[in-house]
Amino acid sequence: MTQRNDLSDNDLLRLMLGGDEEALAQLYRRRQAVVFRFALQMSGSKPIAEDVTQEVFLFLMREGHVFDPARGSVSGFLLGVARNYVLRRLRVEHQLSPLADDDEESAVLQTAGELCQLEDLTRAETIENVRRAVLSLPPKYREVVVLCELQDVSYVETAEILGCAIGTVRSRLHRARALLFSKLRPAENRSEEADSASVKSARCFA
Amino acid sequence: MNCQKFEQVVGDLARGRMMEAEVRTEALAHSEDCGGCLARLRDEETLTRGLQLLATEMSSLSAPPEMEVKLREAFRQRHVVVPMPVRSARPRYWWAAVAAVLIVAMTVAAMWWRSAAPEQKIAKETPPPQVEAPSSPKEVTPKEVEYRAQNDAPKQQREASKPLRRNITPRPAQPETQLANHVTNEIATDFMPLGDLNPASLQDGGQIVRVKMRRSALVRFGFPVNMDRYNENVKADVLVGVDGLAHAIRFVQ
Predict the structure, then answer these.
(1) What does the DSSP assignment read for chain B?
(2) pLDDT tens digits, residue range B142-182?
(3) pLDDT tens per residue, range B15-49
């Protein structure tokens, strides 16, 4: 067991594919929490997170040979598989955020009444509000926030997991943080901004 | 640094990411001079703190322990039912089975061919009966019979000491051919009883004895007789029972 603790994820995966059950157990103990948290932060549902975690490791048993060490780490591979399962599950259960990219502003108004000023919130309230704000993000922004901010994954690895360029990761993260600001901003500020926006629109039409 | 450049780096500045020291110093200096950018930096720091709190709060979460047990069971079932090299193993077994069947078939064919070859050789070496048949009816003098008996004695002893395979070698069909020729060349009447024929006396067997008798004896059995040849003999087969009595007779020409 001590020897397996010293092995890399790649070695454990190779042993597991060769039929070593202890290698599977070791790899699971090492990486299950990351996968579970990612699925939970993406879905906001513990049952879904559990299902996704199980599916990810079952997939690893079945199709683990498709993993290419040259293309990234085992952890990144697992997170990529988890991402696909989460998005599929959310699509099936119609639990995707009702916001499309064009409707993000209406989502801000929808959650405005539930938020308070960040400075006045207690720690638990802050956490809950941030969690809700993250869950209300569109999936493509949510996943970069979860990976880069909550899972502390590097931009490079995030780009590998999402299958996009690093610049895309940066721009999405920037946009996601802006959306989070707008969601967590005090309600009165948003109402004032909404009023000013309507006035500006009126002026434009006039 | 202006507000536009500050906006580009404010995110990394609030999150404490790696950045050039000079850029960092300029950005901090700009935030002290610009109230809007300072508020922007404070918002970014607040958001970063909130996200860090959320990450810390969830860092202790993990999948339930029973999931590992389930995965282990699934792993065992998978590796018991379907071993790892699944795709390559099945065709290999099929090819091995086909090869084994071919080897067995070839072995059986070779054994059959080997066993059939000596028989064909014997058959070729053995002269056909119809070739020997014409030369067989050769009269043997008593001297020759005596000479053959002396020469055949050690031969019979050698044959007795040889294995049984010797007994199954094809025998020349000379006597049968002679008998067949004899039978086909003769014309015989049916057996006619002599006196009271008791079938029970023939149950224990009997013997046919070829005899010669005067042609005039045919008259007693109702056959026409050429008086010019009545002194000649005719051949007849007499059926003699085990009791030594003649029970029936037929005439042969």
Answers:
(1) --HHHHHHHHHHHHHT----HHHHHHHHHHHHH-HHHHHHHHHHHHHHHHHHHHHHHHTT----THHHHHHHHHHHHHHHHS-SSHHHHHHHHHHHHHHHHHHHHHHHHHHHHHHHHHHHHHHHHSPPHHHHGGG------HHHHHHHHHHHHHHHHHHHHS-GGGGGSPPP-HHHHHHHHHHHH--B---EE-SS--GGGGTT-EEEEEEEEEGGGGGGGT----GGGTTSEEEEEEEEETTS-EEEEEEE-
(2) 444 444 545 555 555 555 444 444 444 455 544 544 444 45
(3) 877 778 888 888 888 888 888 888 888 888 888 88
Claim to verify: residue A31 and residue A123 sit in the same structural domain: no
pLDDT confidence bin for B122, thresholds 50/70/90: low
Rounded to the nearest angstrom, the minimum Cα separation between B18 and chain A is 12
pLDDT at B12: 81
Looking at the structure, do residues A88 and A145 belong to the same domain, yes or no?
Answer: no
Residue with tokens 């707008």, as numbered in its chain: A182
pLDDT of A47 higher than 60: yes
Looking at the structure of chain A, the number of domains it has is: 2
pLDDT at A71 (0 to 100): 84
pTM over 0.95, yes/no: no
**Are B58 and A181 a contacting pair at CB < 8 A?**
no
Q: Which 49-108 residues of chain B touch chain A by CB within 8 A?
A: 49-51, 53-55, 57-59, 61-64, 67-68, 70-72, 74-76, 78-79, 83-84
Q: What is the CATH number of the domain that holds A170?
A: 1.10.10.10
pLDDT at residue A172 in the model: 93
Query: Containing domain of residue A25, as a range?
Result: 1-96
Q: Is there a single domain that holds both residue A151 and residue A70?
A: no
- CATH number reported for the structural domain that contains residue A45 in this entry: 1.10.1740.10
Contact A39, A87 (CB under 8 A): no
The ipTM assigned to this model is 0.74
**Based on the domain organization, do A69 and A102 belong to the same domain?**
no
Same structural domain, A8 and A85? yes
